[in-house]
Amino acid sequence: MSGEKEIRNKVEKQVFQKNLQTLKLLVTAEEFRDAAKLIVEQIGVAQHQLQKGEIKLFDYGILVSELNLSLLKKFHLPIHFRPALSNYLQTGEIKKSLVPDRNYFFKYRPSPLKLNRELKPLERVWEIHLITYTKLTTEELKAALRDLSREQNRYFPKTKLYKRIKVRKNIDRELAIETSASLRQRPRLQENLGTYLSTIKKQMERGKFPKEEFEKIKKSHRHTIERVRKGYTANDISNETGVSTDSVKQTVKRLRIERQNRFEI
Fold it and tell me: How far is C-alpha 139 from the chain's CA centre?
């Protein structure tokens, strides 16, 4: 048995004993006996009406539930005592299996209906709610948080999104660098034909000027053609942003890896 399980069992045993003692003290109190007697009488009347068909089963259930709640309110008991208290009103005995051994529980949205062999949910759980019925002791709170950690590991995807993530100080700047990097183009040699040749080329592209004639004119005017190397590289991004070219490449790589870790893409 692990140390964590031993601690949990110890805490649950203490909580059970406290809650059991609370119920024993309550049911032996004269004030409770008087209040319980009246409620049992009211439930008996309702049962008689139900048997005679004077009220519906649904209405009977609501009445019994409200009567039980009235006792909880009157004696300042947490609501998870209701099953044990309701059973006591019916049998006059405290059923130990109904005495709470935890003062908290977990609620899931949606509640997982199917589990695999490792008791992992087969459908996505979006929310885990830690619900407490009363103020927890320090030991109970620690146990609740340990249980919450276990439930998170069990039901939530195991990605870095749920682990400690270092907050990025310049995420917007890094994303801007990444956007610029996506526009990178290898430098290529391009020709600047000038106004005269460009005009003739447009006419040729429209089918209004023979291609052979354009090539002859272009060859005769080759001294006017300016050849430039155009592109968009990490050096250009570096000049625009003030970071090194290595930083540009590292930023793109880091963001790609972080998305993979967070979103498993």
Answer: 27
pLDDT per position as a tens digit, 194-233: 777 778 778 888 887 888 887 787 777 777 766 666 678 8
Amino acid at 31: E
Report if pTM > 0.70.
no
Q: Of how many residues is the chain composed?
A: 265
pLDDT(73) > 80 = yes
Strands 127-132 and 185-192 turn out to be unpaired
DSSP per-residue codes, 77-96: --GGGHHHHHHHHHHSS--G
Q: Is the peptide bond before 110 cis (omega within 30 degrees of 0)?
A: yes
Residue 102 has, within 13 A of its CA and on its CB side, a CA count of 14
Which H or E run contains 132?
A: strand 127-132
DSSP string, 95-116: -GGGS-S-SEEEEEESPP--B-
User: In whole angstroms, what is the distance from residue 125 CA to residue 108 CA?
Assistant: 7
CB of 178 closer than 8 Å to CB of 251: yes
Beta strand 185-192 pairing with 226-232: antiparallel
Whole-angstrom Cα distance, residue 110 to residue 126?
7
The residues facing 229 across adjacent strands are 189
Residue with tokens 């998870």: 80
